[in-house]
Amino acid sequence: MADIHTLASMLKELDDQLVGCMRCGMCQAVCPLFAQTGKESDVTRGKLALLDGLASEMLKDPEGVNEKLNRCLLCGTCQANCPSGVKVLDIFIKARAIMTGYFGLSPVKKAIFRGMLVNPKLFNHLLSFGSKFQGVFTKKVDGMLGASCARFQAPVIGDRHFKSLADKPLHKIVPELDTAPGASGKKVAIFVGCVIDKIYPNVGQATLKALEHHGVGVFMPAGQACCGIPTISSGDTNTFDKLIEENLALFEKGEFDYLITSCATCTSTIKELWPNMYQGSSANRMKLRDLASRTMDVSQFLVDVLGVEPCKVAGNETVTYHDPCHLKNSLGVTAQPRTILKASSGCEFKEMAEAGTCCGSGGSFNIAHYELSKKIGNRKADNIIDSGATTVATSCPACMMQITDMLSHKKAGVQVKHVMELYAEGLR
């Protein structure tokens, strides 16, 4: 761990980025957390002022900074709307890394990140074991959404309605693939992602079905590790680097035109954080920049590369769309998922109010601040219900989990699906 003077010195390195903030308050107008609490310390402007002040005052209150930095969804709404172009997410993630260097990781995070995530075989084995016995501790509460709740009061789970682990993860259904390009002449690598692999393997299968339909070759290596977003969001840069290196070694073994994912968070992490936050060798940094330049969301690939267009046939299922923050705010991908929905046979698309606002998940934010997460999520659920849609689609499995929780509690009778599930259902 670094001492407080080293920590102060490291924080001063952020000064060049901090001075860009004009304190204009635009972030206040768009922050989903501030909308719920009204606290200046919960909005970006307040956090940046705090960092700037503490860097110059030798960090009189590091515990306070740590608590306030972690009270953030990292949704990127402030960054996307900042007139000064301040790289807010870079600042917050670097600051969290500095704080973790000072305080160290909690024993729980250390066990999960450095004991499990860096060892994909162990991680897969433990969750496979857990899936066999989860029925002892959980019970179904919503058959349509496939949501469960805890049988007994649990401190972390609380009253959440959640998707259980899949009976069979994707890595068991399709261990690996290396197929030649078909009619499209294109070949892609697929980064699966932990949540799709272990909770939503049907999303992975739908993605593979769509790629096969369009004659796209697939390289999907076995043994993929986590993209690293939980670790870097918690400031654990060492584990983040190790996860990147594990994945990079796997994908170097294949030849492909693009790397695609069906997880908005994984896409954003690979494209934005891998090349910018990795602290390893310069050779690997060059490889990561190249990989990032070829990384796309699956809907972006289907529309921008393969030219998928909306179909003219009216559908029976009314579908609305929730924009994941990591696609909309970080990558500017909004039109392509909607095009895929409009190209999905049997779907009638209907826009909902505030489609681009955060659902309140925020990864670990949901765990640490569930009541706030739920307030933000309930606003999203109300907009979905008010749209009159029978199904809400999105491009992020974490958003699917959050929205499932909110809609299940409301007994809304609205399905939650991934964009690729709906598209694959309409393919012949």
Element layout with pairings:
Layout: H1 4-12, H2 15-18, H3 26-30, H4 32-37, H5 44-56, H6 62-69, H7 77-80, H8 88-103, H9 107-117, H10 120-137, E1 138-142, E2 147-150, E3 162-163, H11 170-173, E4 177-178, E5 187-190, H12 194-198, H13 201-213, E6 217-220, H14 229-233, H15 237-251, E7 258-261, H16 264-277, H17 282-293, E8 295-297, H18 298-305, E9 317-321, H19 325-331, H20 335-342, E10 347-349, H21 364-368, H22 370-386, E11 391-394, H23 397-410, E12 415-418, H24 419-425
Parallel strand pairs: 5-6, 5-7, 7-8, 9-10, 9-11, 11-12
Antiparallel strand pairs: 1-2, 2-3, 4-6
Helix pairs in contact: 1-5, 1-8, 5-6, 6-8, 13-24, 16-17, 16-19, 18-20, 20-24, 22-23
Give the % helix. 40-55%
Number of beta-strand segments: 12
Instruction: Note the total helix count.
Output: 24
Structural class: alpha/beta
Low-confidence stretches: none
Major sheet details: 5 strands, mixed
Beta-strand residue percentage: 5-15%
Please tell me how large the radius of gyration is. 21 Å
How confident is the prediction overall: mean pLDDT? 90
Order of strands across the biggest sheet?
Answer: 4-6-5-7-8
**Molecular shape:** globular
Alpha carbon gap, first and last residue:
57 Å
